[in-house]
Specification:
By secondary structure, the protein is α/β, with parallel strands linked by helices. The chain has three domains: 7-73, Arc Repressor Mutant, subunit A; 85-188 and 321-349, Response regulator (Rossmann fold, 3-Layer(aba) Sandwich), CATH 3.40.50; 190-318 and 353-369, Rossmann fold (3-Layer(aba) Sandwich), CATH 3.40.50.2300. It has helices at residues 7-23, 36-43, 47-59, 98-111, 125-138, 157-165, 190-203, 218-233, 256-262, 274-286, 321-336, 362-369; strands spanning 63-66, 70-73, 85-90, 115-120, 142-145, 170-173, 185-188, 209-214, 243-246, 268-271, 296-301, 314-317, 347-349, 353-354. Strand 10, helix 10 and strand 11 form a beta-alpha-beta unit.
Length: 370
C-alpha cells in the first residue's frame, strides 16, 4: 500500500487506519500493534510519519508503548452490536445471601436502564465456562461474576481474556482468581473478619480454638488466614487437628460426629459461615452441649439463619445488598470510562462485628471454679 500525499495527510491516514482497526476488532484491547518497521514497509512511510501517528495515539490513551515489548492497544473502543444487557453470574441465586446481593445489583442496573442476564454455576467450572461462552455471543455491556472454585487453578482464564479483548468490562464479587488479579473485585474483608472474631475469643480467655473452613473457594483461605493471624499475634500455636476443611459438596453432613471428636479439647469454634454454624449448633444439641457454656461459637455472614436462635451468635456482617450495589455502580463507572478496568476499581468492604451472647469469658469461668 502506498499513500501519495503530504506528510501531514499521511500520518492522519495511518492514525485513522489504526483507530479503525481498534474499533472494528482487528486490534483488540491488549493486542500488540504492528511494529514501526512493519508499518513503514506496509504503507511506504518514513519512521517520522509513523512515530507521529503513534505518539498522538499514545497521548490520547489509545495505545501504550512498552519498552522492549512493543506497542499495545490500551483502550476499549466502541464495539458493534453491543446489547444493553449486563450479565450476572453467581454460584446460587435463590439461597442464603445471594437474593439480597442480586437485589442490590439489580436495583442499580435497572434504574440505569440495563437489562440483566442471570446465570448460576452451582460452583461448577463447566457451568461458568458455558455462561462466559454465551456472553461472548450476546456481547453484553459488562459482567458481574462470582467465580467458581476460586481457590483452585482458574480453568477459564482464556474465556475471561477473550471477554476483555472484546472490550467487555468485568467485576468480580466475593472472590477472585489469582490468575485474574488485574480484574476489579468487590469483596468483604474475609481476613479482617475472621481475625476480629478470633481476637474476641482470645480476649475472652480462649486458647484452644477450632476453625472450620471451605477449601475450594478463596474466601476459605482468607478466613483461615485471619484466624491464623490472630492466633500467631498472641503466640498461640496453630494445631492442624483443630482446623477442619470441607468443600462445596460435603457441607459436613456426614462428618460432624468426626469433627467434634477432632476438636474435643477446644473451647471455641470459628465457623466459615452461618450454614456451617447451623450444623455445628445442631451437633452440639445432639451431644447435649450448650452455647456458650460448653463451647463458644462465632460465625461469618450474619444472615437470617442465625437471627432467631435461643442464644445470639456473635458474627461478622456480610454487606450483602451493599456489595451488590457497589459492584453494579463500579461496573457502570467502567462502562462510562470505556475501560475493561484495573485493580483501582476494586473495593474491600470494612469489617463489622455484631457481638451477641455466644462467647463465654473463660477467664471468669476458670476463676469461678478455683
Amino acid at each position: 500500500m502506498h499513500w501519495e500525499d503530504s506528510f501531514d495527510h499521511k500520518y492522519v491516514k495511518l492514525k485513522k487506519w489504526l483507530i479503525d482497526g481498534m474499533t472494528n476488532g482487528q486490534f483488540r484491547f491488549g493486542d500488540r500493534l504492528p511494529s514501526e518497521n512493519m508499518l513503514c514497509r506496509k504503507f511506504d512511510l518514513s519512521r517520522q510519519t509513523v512515530r507521529r501517528a503513534l505518539d498522538e495515539l499514545e497521548k490520547e490513551g489509545a495505545i501504550k508503548k512498552v519498552r522492549g515489548s512493543g506497542t499495545f492497544v490500551n483502550r476499549v473502543f466502541a464495539q458493534p452490536q453491543r446489547t444493553s444487557s449486563v450479565g450476572i453470574l453467581s454460584t446460587v441465586l435463590y439461597e442464603y445471601i445471594f437474593p439480597t446481593i442480586m437485589f442490590g445489583a439489580e436495583n442499580i442496573l435497572t434504574s440505569a436502564g440495563y437489562g440483566i442476564e442471570f446465570g448460576i454455576t452451582y460452583n461448577k467450572v463447566e457451568n461458568e465456562a458455558n455462561f462466559l461462552k454465551r456472553m461472548l455471543e450476546i456481547n453484553p455491556m459488562g459482567l458481574i461474576i462470582e467465580g467458581s472454585k476460586t481457590n483452585l487453578p482458574a480453568m477459564n482464564v482464556d474465556l475471561f481474556r477473550e471477554i476483555q479483548r472484546k472490550g467487555i468490562p468485568v467485576v468480580f464479587i466475593h472472590n477472585q482468581y489469582a490468575e485474574l488479579s488485574d480484574i476489579p473485585c468487590i469483596i468483604m474483608d474475609d481476613v479482617g473478619s475472621a481475625f476480629a472474631l478470633t481476637e474476641l475469643l482470645i480476649q475472652n480467655g480462649h486458647k484452644k480454638i477450632a476453625g472450620i473452613f471451605k477449601f475450594d473457594d478463596v474466601q476459605g483461605k482468607y478466613r483461615y488466614a485471619g484466624y491464623g493471624k490472630a492466633l500467631r499475634a498472641h503466640k498461640i500455636p496453630i494445631v492442624d487437628e483443630h482446623v477442619i476443611w470441607f468443600d462445596s459438596y460435603e457441607w459436613l453432613g456426614k462428618e460432624m460426629n468426626w469433627v467434634f471428636e477432632e476438636i474435643a479439647e477446644c473451647t471455641a469454634i470459628v465457623c466459615y459461615n452461618d450454614q456451617v454454624c447451623i450444623k455445628v449448633l445442631a451437633e452440639m444439641k445432639r451431644r447435649g452441649l450448650s452455647v456458650p457454656t460448653d463451647i463458644s461459637v462465632v460465625s461469618i455472614d450474619d444472615t437470617n439463619l442465625i437471627a432467631n436462635l435461643e442464644v445470639g451468635i456473635t458474627s461478622a456482617v456480610h454487606p450483602k445488598e451493599i456489595i451488590g450495589e457497589v459492584a453494579a455502580k463500579t461496573l457502570i463507572k467502567m462502562i462510562e470510562d470505556n475501560t475493561v478496568g484495573n485493580k483501582s476499581y476494586s473495593k474491600v468492604m470494612p469489617v463489622e462485628i455484631v457481638v451477641r451472647q455466644s462467647i463465654a469469658n473463660r477467664k471468669k469461668m476458670e476463676k469461678h471454679h478455683e
